[in-house]
Amino acid sequence: MSNQSKILNTITQYFVYGLVFLFPLFFLPITRDFLVYSKFYFLAAVLFIVLLLSLGKFLLTKKFTWVHNLATQSLILILLSYVLSIVLMSPNKLQAVFNPQYGLILLTSMVLLYLYASHAFARAKISPILPIAVSGLLVSVLALIVMVDPFQGTELPAYWSFLSNTTFNTIGSSVHFIAFLVFTLVGSSLYMWRTYARSRVVNEANRTMLIMLGVIVLFTLLALIFHVFIVSQQILTEGAQIIIPPFSLSWFAAVEVLKNPMTAIFGVGVDNFSSLFTQVRTVNYNLSDLWQVNSFNTSRSTFLHIFTEQGILGVIGFSLLISLFLKNMKHVKLETAGMFITSLIILAILPPTGITFFLFFVALAMMAADFHKRKEQEEYVIDLSTLTPIFIGMIVIIALILGGSGYFMGRHFMAEYYFKLSLDAVADNSLQKLYENQAKALQYNNNSEEFHRQFAQTNLLVANNMASVEADKLTDQDRETITQAIQAAIVEAKAATALNPQKVTNWQALAGVYRQIINVAENAPVWAVSAYQQAIVLDPRNPLLRLDLGGVYYLFENYDEAQKLFEQAVSLKPDWSNAHYNLAWTYYQKKIYGSAVDQMQIVVGLLDAGTQPEDYKAAQKNLDEFKKTYEEELAKIEQEQAAQGGDQGQQGLAPAGELNLPVAPATQLEKKIELPEEASPGAAVGQ
């Protein structure tokens, strides 16, 4: 091997170790969900450089070298399951490819990390546990500093406001932060134990290592204890919640895919879990504290998520991979085995994220390195120095793949960058910057449902701002601009439904757009009803959708339909005071005063006078008014019965900060806008 090749190998090894060390630490607040997206782009960027180094080595040696790895076949099957699931099942295929938590690019990057890391760990003199352990130390120290709230009383710029959160960490959610600390703690503790046992027999040179590992274990343990304490305090005293999908519904979703041969084999498609979650959502879920979370994008367990989105094919791939390493676990070091088992537990109990897959594939790489240290790796070398056409052809193909990957990843990054700028514009109260940056984000990535939904709301905001001017001051040009903004809002909301017609969030957003233009656009009420009905089909046990649709009917005094929907909302969530409140007023408007009293009595019983004083007073006042009206109506009926000498009986009673009746949008125009038929929810979206 030439010196240049050795240098490239050494540089590659440094990049791999640097990636393992920096991935848990890295973040840049220049994208939305920056702890997720910045790690995703960092991972892809470093591996892109590593691939370029490999290409450089190939150019120098004109030899294609493949190092045998025991997991190659399983990894190919896993990637194949992802590709087939996306191609055959995913509604929004490009979004599934670029999803930063569990998409195809993330998994491909993790596979590449495993292949390069297992090779680098096997040849390096430094233990592979050290970069992840030292990274864990720095993550813990930073978390401990933030826990003491060093910026208390300091007005931080909006850009850095997250530092005022005492539970902030560089990993992400609290549960994944705890999982990372446990992973690091297990590995560091076992490595320290093995080093200590070995040092008593061999020499005293390991004392420095023991001290360093002791410091790592100490700070990691402190960060773990204090973080759990702070989160527990927030849950007990402030009512905070750890929002993760319920295990029961995750299990129901996994079982649901078995009912159809295609979904059983290939799953429901990558990035499509939410569409199945809304189908298996139960009434009991509505009684939980999470009921206002309409859907989750991930399962409770990474294993269940794989089964749900990639089907049996994905399960087989991961099962073969895991079983292969379990069978060879006796040949690995104690700390390696401990970290591997810990990573499996994390995959079993936590939703999929970049950090869960990172810990799993790093543990696999460490195990593979231990195997290959015992047994020399087989290398397959193809010399292309005499096969110039093939060599040039491979260079062109590899360059095109790398160039295309870099181009599309760059566009995806720029889209997220501009979208983050649009969110910053909200804090600056700049509607122009908000609009311009969201438009730029969509230019770079037109396949993001979230971008389309948000841009729809931005266009509505533009229309509302212009329509808020007094009617006699509106020019024809203003009306034309308002019309264009409303049409753009509808187009953007419909674009989201076209990208994924199975996701209830998209239909809910479209219905919301129609509802907000009820007073300014013809046919908007009909279209709002149609969109809400489609949302209810996709999420049949969601009480909020029925309340919203009932609200549309209530606004237009169709109290019969409103009553039906409010009654359905009450049956789906009996402890929801606002549903009972709307139903009470609907009964009152229909002059069913006895039922109105009963429902308002339920509202008063559900409200807490201590924590909801305004709502409680309003409900009590309404109840008194309803009772008075009911008593007056009864007296009138009794007088009529006495005059007629009949006995007609009484009317039957209906079954037994959040009280809000449906309110029409404030924006109104003297003359409503006539929108084209293409603006209806059923019309196709123009390309």
UniProtKB/TrEMBL annotation:
Keywords: Membrane, TPR repeat, Transmembrane, Transmembrane helix. TPR repeats lie at residues 543-576. The chain crosses the membrane at residues 7-28, 40-60, 67-89, 101-117, 129-148, 168-188, 209-230, 303-326, 338-369, 389-410. It holds the Pfam family TPR_19. InterPro entries: TPR-like_helical_dom_sf (IPR011990), TPR_rpt (IPR019734). The keyword Membrane applies. Coiled coil: none annotated. Residues 639-687 are annotated as: Disordered. This is Uncharacterized protein. The lineage of its organism: Bacteria, Candidatus Roizmaniibacteriota.
